[in-house]
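I have been asked to look over a protein record a colleague put together. The record follows directly below this note.
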Amino acid sequence: MLEEDKFSRERKLKEKQHIGGITGSYWLIVLAGFFAYSFITSDWGRSWIAFPVAALLTPIVYQIEKHIKSK
C-alpha cells in the first residue's frame, strides 16, 4: 500500500497517541462524574448507566476531535 500524506506510518502513530490522550481524559471525566453523582445521591443502582451512555458517545467524541485536529 502507498504510505503517503495522511496514510504515512508516522502520522498514524502521532494521531493515535494524541487521540488516546483525549479518550483517556474523556473516560476520566466520566468516571469522576459517576463517583460524584453516586456519592452525592447514594443512587448506585441507577448511576451505572453513565458507562453505557459514555461508551455510545465515545465514537462521537473521537470524530469531533479528529475533525478539529484536521483544521
